[in-house]
Please model this.
Amino acid sequence: MSKIIIRHLTGSKANHGEEFDEKTSSLRIGRELSMDIKYHPDLDDTVGRQHAMIERDKNDPAKFFVKDLGSGNGTFVNKTRVNQSVPLSVGDIVQLGPNGPEFEFDLDPRPVGAMKATRVDQSTLRP
Model:
């Protein structure tokens, strides 16, 4: 089994990472103190108190899912709003609210064959 790695990209936790051991079966995300991944109660105000959850598949511990917990601002995976539990892959970007903090989901070690999505270099795109 793999450790879960959360790399915070934006918000009050930008440029910080969190690791959770291979026995972690779920991670609760929000602004409440009881959450596993805690966001700042004032600076990250698009994040709900109990916003989202990442869960390891009970039948296949190499697979993960993310779901919104009824937050007012929603949860997005790779810029798409999710309304139900959806698969989470290495390199996926989760955003908490439309302009809220983002983090990248990763595993260590990565499952065999798991590869980050190809990054599009925005500087080479023409208007």
Summary: The mean pLDDT is 91. The radius of gyration is 14 Å. The first strand starts at residue 3 and ends at 8. The CA atoms of residues 3 and 108 lie 5 Å apart.
